[in-house]
Amino acid sequence: MVHEGLKTVLDGVLRATQAAGRPAGEVNLIAVSKTFAAPDIIPVIEAGQRLFGENRVQEAKGKWPALRMRWPDLALHLIGPLQSNKAAEAVQLFDAIHTVDRPKIAQAIAAEMKRQAKPLTLFVQVNTGREPQKAGIDPGEADAFLARCRDVFGLGISGLMCIPPADEDPRPHFDLLREIARRNGLPKLSMGMSGDYAAAIAAGATHVRVGSAIFGKRD
Question: Fewest beta carbons within 10 Å, which of 30, 32, 47, 132?
Fold first, then answer.
């Protein structure tokens, strides 16, 4: 079964990967299904997509357990901000969290992963634009925070995530994230969305988060 939105994005990801001189399959497409209900998501699953992203724990809790009963090989990534009181549910529901951004969250996730005996893939969110309204650790504090995650909380961090300012060229932000990851030995980069994923792939993204280009405009 072909899903036109998904096919267009997968073709775009492949072209951008090849243009960057990177091996096919090196970039993971996260289909961002926030605000969309199961009837919108099922055709994308049936077309072969297995990796999805959600912004809110409560919303994910309402639709994904039933979908994962039907398709046990689905993977679900939390790409929105997390409150520490939702850490238990987040660890239970998700396979990866992209928004570790402060000590309280790191500590809560570490405790829950241990309690539930469930390892997750974890990304630290970096506020590359230093936007006051946006979540994420300040770039100047990222190295120390990553060391604290490892040494104090015992968390294995796999990569970094960013959301560049909407009104700026995203490429310097992608380059900054890549540099922080490089000097900390982190292999994964979650960056790039519907409008800029090609630039993110050129800068080394391993995960791109695409919603509207697959599912259409949100209400």
Answer: 132
Quickly count helices (H) and strands (E) in the chain. 9, 8
Question: What are the backbone angles phi and psi of residue 123, rounded to the nearest 5°?
Answer: -120, 140
**In angstroms, what is the C-alpha Rg of the chain?**
17
Contacts of 29 (CB under 8 A, 6+ apart): 9, 10, 13, 49, 51, 208, 210
Q: What are the tens digits of pLDDT across the range 111-132?
A: 999 999 999 999 999 999 999 9
- The arithmetic mean of pLDDT across residues 94-109, rounded, is 97
pLDDT digits (tens, 9 = 90+) for 31-53: 999 999 999 999 999 999 999 99
User: How many angstroms separate the CA atoms of 137 and 198, rounded?
Assistant: 25
Give Cβ neighbours of residue 50 (< 8 Å, ≥ 6 apart): 71, 73, 74, 75
Torsion angle, alpha carbons of 212, 215, 218, 219, to 10:
160
Using an 8 Å Cβ cutoff, are 167 and 141 in contact? no
Question: Residue 217 — very low, low, confident or very high, per pLDDT cuts 50/70/90?
Answer: confident
Cut 0.85: pTM above it: yes
Q: Are the beta carbons of 206 and 18 closer than 8 angstroms?
A: no
Distance of alpha carbon 89 from alpha carbon 138, whole angstroms? 27
d(CA 112, CA 121): 14
